Fold these 4 entries.
Entry 1:
Amino acid sequence: MLLLILSMYYLHFTLNDNEENYLQLAKAFYEPDWIVNSFVLTESAGTRLLYQYIIGFFLNLFSFELVVFIFRGLFIIAFSLVLHKIYKSLKINNIIVFAHLFLIYLDNQSYFAGSRIFISVEAKTFAYLFVFLALNFIIQKKYNLTVLFLIVATYFHILVGFYAFGYMAISILIIEKWDFRSNYKLILKLFVYVLAILPFVFVLYSNINTNVTANLKPSSDWIYTYFRNPHHTTLINAEFSTQLKGILYSVMAMLFLIYMYRKENNDSKMKVLYLIGIVTYAGTLLLVPLIFIDKNGTFLKFYLFRINAFSTFIFTLTLTNWLYKITKEEYKTIVYAGVAMLGLIQLATVSFRQYKNITYSDTSLNEVCEFIKSKTDKESNILGLANPAAGFDNDLKLSLTRKMERDMFVVYKFVPADLNKIHEWYKRVKIRNDIAKNINLLTDALDDYKIDYVLSKRSFKTEFLKLEFNNNSYFLYKVEKR
């Protein structure tokens, strides 16, 4: 059943926005000559080192769409096996599993900060797979294996792995009643994690050159958090009211888990699960005040709220299980009928979404990309202009770069994780925004930048732009140098 549910949601060939970003970075990392002198796709692998070697290798053999399909399939199988072990260990029956995943969790995986676990071909998905393996073993109090899988998770994604370890380590210490004297071996086990990730931390730190950006304003931290990722980091943006509701929901979820934990008398696996949910929620919520204090993004850039999707998984599982158990036996038939009816509605919704993914084809995009790929120089740089009303998020299709195999002047979505590069990205985003509003400003940009073509969904009539190609959706102009 788990295979079927996850496949219905995620098994298709269409790349989501994050996959467009990270797969292109992986291919450019593995094949440096793929797009020559790329600004958009050239940066240190950083925390994605393992991911970029693995995905880059497969992209050297197969198309982007096929790699996504293959790895989504592998993730679906792997997560199904791990989740099956967790549900079975907790004695969760199939009706609860169905209601938990299909009806409640998968469409709303976190209540604030936009964190998600399932399923995308990203470094964090590799990491979460091992975090769930760690969860499977911590509820069985097998701490050696818990620590081992958290180490592997950290090497795939340092933030996911580190936060999961921190909260699980606190949970373990509470379970064992903080008895350091009799449990010194336990402390040593936890310390093994620190020793094991030190080489990775050293490699990451050695690639950071803070001197390059130390004196530039605004700071690289502010650009990354407040300008580009407030929805994940600072939470203070146009959707703050929604974020605030999510925070309140998370507080209520934590209180419910505390109630369930205090109600559970025996030392059960469910009690361990409740505790982990409480600790992860509490840790995340205690960090929320930083959004009002850290005006530079110094700490917020580390995605302090990322792990709350994991907390939400635990809460929604606990809630679903509790609702099922408090239902009297004579009403179970009604419950089954209600779940079946809601399941059919959700099935129709998910099926329609999948149908759109499977049948989607942008012929106009493919035509212009093929023209650019076959008719322009490999080192050409393309300035993409969408709707000026979109503001700084003025990207055309994110698949453009990989399909035309030419570098873009800038892509808002593809913000560099390398903070040494982010000021240049920020500058280019602002320049592009100005040009989108007034095409004549392009001539000023040409004094400092190489821009060979302008690709837009709008037509322009200026003496320095020569129309090279157009179809139903796109206009490609060659920039005539003055």
Entry 2:
Amino acid sequence: MMATFEVSDEKLEETELALLIGKITMLWNQLHDTTRYCFPIVLGENPKLVSAVLDPIKSDDVQRNVVLSVIHFALPGDQHADLRDEASRLFNLIGRLAGQRNGFVHSSWIRTDGGRAEVSSVLKKPHGAIDRSEPLKQGMELLRQIESALSQMFILWGKLQSAIGPRSHHPQYNPS
């Protein structure tokens, strides 16, 4: 005979929240990678250079600022002003979403006396305000916004590639 398990509403909410935080994390990591990939798109460099330049920088915000600076450097002149502005708006949006993402991923989640999962007011991090009464609803909206930013990033890639034009491949460094 198969055992049956009863799942309380509180446990179900906690499981849904854990899955949502996992989805937010996974999609955010993809957005982070696509943002970094703008670097070799505009400079035509070996993607390993991206790691050499950006990996020592621990702050995602500073990494985004470096990549945005590279975009601005590689696309000078009035003919690229709209594209630079579009990139700046998208990178600023990602920066605003980062605070919300940090709120979900780095907060200390507790179960209240009423059984609901919420952010601990004692251990609450200073970034990313989370609506204590509706964390699932707010998390779903954040997930939608991250998905939208990721779609916008893919469109930006195409525009950057078109603006830069075809590139010849740089010779690969061979230490031997």
Entry 3:
Amino acid sequence: MKRFTILLLSLILLVACSEDETAEYEIIEKDNSRENVLSVRVVTESQDEEELKEIASEVSEEIRDTSTFDGLNMFAAYIRIHEPSDTEKFGSLKLDSKIAYRDEGLAITGLDETETIEVTKVNLEE
């Protein structure tokens, strides 16, 4: 019984340690010049498409956090993920996405449903 308990605890620990975390990223630009629409630029070193999609999803959730985005009441958001650059604010575009948070955002983004992030472009180096 003791061996079984140790084996079970080891398995639980292994599963807990193997959970994926979102790749590191930095929000470098927040443009709210369009009423109720936010454009966000993010930089990351990641070249993995699934990680980039996870970053876009995490940023879309972060936009809902009023303490992060100054309490903006957003209809929609455009999230663009770039590679970092030593000479510019951001490098080339890796992933472009958009989300409508409310029905008013559907016409703005051209999406068919709210609360679903759509990736419109992925550009990764091979």
Entry 4:
Amino acid sequence: MKKVKQLLIFPFIFHITSAWCGGDDWLFRVVDIKTETKNCTRIYLESVEASQRFPASCKSFEVLACYSWSWWNPNTPVSRDQHNQAIGFLRHAKTSSTPIRFGEMGTGFGDVIQGKECHASSTALEIMNDIAVYSFFEWP
């Protein structure tokens, strides 16, 4: 019985102690940003720095950011408010023509199509360190 209790407790402890390990970001210019629905915003980015790595290797990068949270995990790492603040940050970057750092945390992009023009999906965006927007696709 003691072994069964330990096995049941381990996933719970692992879940509450998970943390972000780091991510990657690149310099982009926000070309356009359009609201699709209440939860979805389409972001059009253009790479500013040359790189062989996705997504900076793309001439243009389109991200469909649709905020989503899991009913089984109400403590989603990125809140709707944080996501909306990131959208606002991107809108400001577009109007001011200021390049921004845009990246991914963990599995930050889903439904990826690579080429000269790249496309991907995101389930949440978050501003980090007041200078970069990170995309999340799968929750830990």
